[in-house]
Amino acid sequence: MLIKKPSDIPPSEITDYETFRRRRELMRRGAVMLGAGLIGSTTGTLPAWGASIPPDDGTFGDLPDSRFNTDEDLTSRKAITGYNNYYEFGTSKSDPARYADQMPTSPWHVKVHGECDKPATVSVDDLVGNVALEDRIYRHRCVEAWSMVIPWVGVPLGAVLKRFKPNSRAKYVAFTTLYDPQHMPGQHSTVLDWPYHEGLRIDEAMHPLTLLGVGLYGKALPNQNGAPVRVVVPWKYGYKSPKSIVEIRFTEKQPVTAWHKAFPDRYGFYSNVNPDVDTVPWSQSYERRIGDLFKRKTEMFNGYGDQVAHLYSGMDLSKHY
User: Fold this and answer.
1) Which stretches of the chain are assigned E, i.e. beta strand?
2) Which of 38, 158, 181, 247 has its CA 20 to 30 A from that of 196?
3) What class is the 25-312 domain?
4) H/E element, 31
5) What global pTM score does this model have?
């Protein structure tokens, strides 16, 4: 190979400094455009950033809005990142923000297996990097009488799962989250049977509202919100959205989930937002939005009934809660 000396290189062939500085970004953009062209995109848009999730500076840049956006006022980023349920770090709402920064999130791999034709263990980049990113704003409620409106960044979970070719026996999708008592002090407690297990019916997992989240407010997920990758199911209560996922498994039988195993009389498998079903000892008919003084009536399916009610046609939702 011919290597030119500096005196041999004309000025027209010298890369300008700004292009050189941005070379990794440009390479990422090219890689993802190629990937999106090969495997397709459920959104019809190309990502503003490339396959590095999260980007080097932790910011995703300009992203297209989701067709499911809400026009409700957003909860502040301070509240979203400082007031959390993440029992792996403790049962107090402030424990995750206090302790989660010690959890290592890179490198990170997710094992995908079970009833599928293409099982694999992949990095977060490989898991979501070839699917177009969207900015999705969801009303994300938890089981207590309070709620938030969070501008999630992520990709449709269904678009990711299809790459692993679930077979005809795949009726459910089970998730396992990180088990790391050294960095997750809450896992020394017996409040739940660790690691955390959660699950969805496969049609719920494939629904375009279900999100594989990698960020919020345009930046990479903070550890206390489930970094580096989590699930968001906006018509269900927050504990149906497992954080810091390390395993995805396609199953034929309904998987055992953490909260249902601990309190089967309180937490059903479906855990849809249903104001007519109380979660003992709490009523779910009203909720309080973070920052609001007064409660408001809880909406069935968290306000997404038009999109998801058909998934439960013919089911007794007071029994299948």
Assistant:
1) 109-114, 120-123, 134-141, 147-156, 172-177, 197-201, 211-216, 219-220, 230-232, 245-251, 286-287, 296-297
2) 158
3) alpha beta
4) helix 23-39
5) 0.82
